[in-house]
Amino acid sequence: MAGSPVAAQFRARLDLILSEPTPFIKSIVNSPEDEAGALLEIDLEERLDQYARERSTLVERLKKLSADEWQKTAVHEAFDHYSVWIMFRHVLNHEMLHAYRIEELLLKKDLD
Question: HEC string of the chain?
Fold first, then answer.
């Protein structure tokens, strides 16, 4: 099974920012398939295992970045300024939003 598209996009962004003098980052847009509900068809357990493996590898890579690499900037299509640090802060905030939504659903009194 191939890596998840989002994980691959952020690995590619990191590689681009660290390797190019003036990298340009395009916004991530959901595919028409995802918008139509394709993610409801995935094997959740398999995808969670994949997520854990990929995140572990990514965290190990991020731990090795120098202070200068964390501050390396890029031109972003939608943001006024962008850096490796901002990119991964966004990833963390986005994932925390998902975690919050899951917790919110699990805590609802009317959940069957």
Answer: CCCCHHHHHHHHHHHHHHHCCCCEECCCCCCHHHHCCHHHHCCHHHHHHHHHHHHHHHHHHHHCCCHHHHHCEEEECCCCCEEHHHHHHHHHHHHHHHHHHHHHHHHCCCCC
